[in-house]
Amino acid sequence: MTKPIIFSGIQPTGRKHLGNFIGAIRQYVEGQDRGDPAIFCIVDLHAISVPYDPVELRERVYDTAATLLGAGLDPERCILFRQSDVREHTELTWLLSAVTSHGDLNRMTQFKEKVGKDRELASAALFYYPVLMAADVLAYRATEVPVGDDQRQHVELMREIARRFNARFGETLVVPELVLPEVGARIMDLQEPERKMSTTGGTPQGTVLVLDEPDVVRKKFGSAVTDSGREVVRAPDKPGITNLIDILAVARGADQAAVEAEFEGAGYGDFKKAVAEAVVEYLGPTRERYAELRPDEAALERVFAAGAEKARALAAPVLADVRDRMGYGSASQAG
Ligand code: ATP
Ligand code: MG
Q1: Would you say the pTM of this structure is higher than 0.70?
Q2: Are 226 and 241 in contact (CB under 8 A)?
Q3: CB–CB of 39/79 below 8 Å?
């Protein structure tokens, strides 16, 4: 059986949280053995879509790299690189614009959610973000894209972009599959369980960071919003408890029904304590390794350099095909 080509990107904006860990990072670590190759990218070019500080951006890129390595990404078993080191991403973004319509981008709910009322002031980069994301994936002819549920629409769009490209210019790009985790594809903010936990839009108290100290994690779970009932069961009108059940199930590697059975008759207070302890344990190893890895920026740069070289070697021939199909450069013999 041929192994999938896995690609996923993660933003270096802010500090990564439990939602990123459960929805994405956990899948990356598992993907290293399934994928050939498994390619993971710190998408620093996406960061300009919201206001940011250049000095801080570099710091956050290192933070994100040390978090991913701390979680178990192994540069020997995957390709880990920084997006801006591989120019093919930006060139392909522009070329894919030819088969992306303004209407497509206008339908993207993430853009609408992120801009809110300030639509006129939002950067063009924020509007255009899904095209760069399509280029990220399509440049590698990736077959699988492990992401959280919030990226479903963007993956659907990149699939459509690939299909349109192939229909117009000939079979060139691969239409990738969306891969969501079975449990935890959408971890919710602990304070506002109707909204996803998020790097840029969430509440500070409702966002559990991967690097939070154990006591901070305990406090955040302790003040998690629940409901006026008393039963630890999943239900549409119990978004807070449902979210906590999902989190505990993932942290323990158990299924949700087993969690419900275990906490039948227990109070919310004890349940929240159990979730907090499980999460402290779940994130502990990553936090400890992060502390060892983060100070050595030169070593992180070496990981990026080696990763970028491998990534470029994969993306360059795809770009050559795309240019050729689109009529750029001198006609190739193969064409
Ligand atoms: P931002 O709010 O700035 O978009 P983010 O928190 O969504 O940041 P990203 O770097 O955009 O973080 O996302 C990285 C990965 O984490 C993506 O695959 C995304 O789908 C996933 N992810 C983000 N938030 C959650 C969440 N609450 N639950 C599960 N997965 C998530
Ligand atoms: Mg996001």
Answers
A1: yes
A2: yes
A3: yes
Which residue has a Cα nearest atom 16 of ligand 1?
20
Rounded to whole angstroms, the Cα distance separating 223 from 122 reads: 33
Nearest CA, atom 13, ligand 1? 10
Say if residues 60 and 14 touch (Cβ distance below 8 Å).
yes
Q: What is the largest distance, in Å, between two alpha-carbon atoms of the chain? A: 73
Task: List Cα–Cα distances, 275 to 198, 241, 249, 287, in angstroms.
Answer: 19, 11, 9, 18
Distance CA(123)–CA(52), nearest Å, equals: 12
Q: Is 207's C-beta closer than 6 angstroms to any atom of ligand 1?
A: no
Nearest-atom index, ligand 1, CA of 199: 6
What is each CA distance from 255 to 29, 92, 208, in whole angstroms?
Answer: 20, 41, 21
- Name the closest ligand to CA 247: 1
Give pLDDT tens digits for 157-176: 999 999 999 999 999 999 99
Q: For atom 23 of ligand 1, which residue has the closest CA?
A: 20
Q: Is the CB of 123 under 6 A from ligand 1?
A: no
Residues 6+ apart with CB under 8 A from 83: 9, 41, 42, 43, 44, 45, 46, 89, 136
